[in-house]
Specification:
alpha+beta; Structural Genomics Hypothetical 15.5 Kd Protein In mrcA-pckA Intergenic Region, Chain A; 5 helices; 37% helix; elongated
Length: 151
């Protein structure tokens, strides 16, 4: 069985074309050699795959006829991925969910306005307004700074 087809059947990639593309970029090794998509896979081969900053290691036990269900994966491969590598994947997932809760969608208008209050332009404008209120007798007009103005 071709390596790209095997990785697709083992559910490491959603489509065969994604598996082929990753293999063309040199993301998988069999033994010490970078594997091409058309390389044949045999039982006993040890495959090292780098996907999304995680290094997976698996040993081929048997070759499936086609794509298999997630519960049947252990019949066809032995997962030898070190726990530290799986921890990297878990931390990456936690870091992504930290910024915004999953399923909340785009920021609302209220959220956007709250964010705009903390932009540098809004803070600068607020300081200028505050300065103008503190010195009512002066008729100084403040001009915006350009790139050529020295601070």
């Amino acid at each position: 069985m071709r390596l790209d087809k095997y990785l697709w059947a083992m559910r490491y990639f959603k489509t065969r074309s994604l598996a082929t593309e990753a293999l063309k970029k040199g993301k998988a090794r069999i033994g010490d050699q970078i594997a091409k998509p058309s390389r044949e896979v045999f039982p006993g081969d040890v495959i090292a795959l780098r996907k999304e900053q995680v290094d997976y290691v698996m040993e081929v036990i048997a070759l499936p006829e086609s794509r298999v269900g997630a519960k049947l994966l252990n019949l066809y491969r032995t997962d030898m991925t070190p726990p530290e590598n799986l921890e990297v994947a878990r931390l990456k997932q936690l870091a992504q969910s930290h910024y915004r809760e999953r399923g909340t969608g785009r920021p609302t208008k209220k959220d956007r306005r709250a964010l705009e209050q903390y932009t540098p332009d809004a803070i600068t404008d607020a300081l200028i307004d505050e300065f103008a209120q503190e010195t009512p007798g002066t008729s100084t007009t403040l001009l915006p700074l350009t790139e050529n103005d020295a601070l």
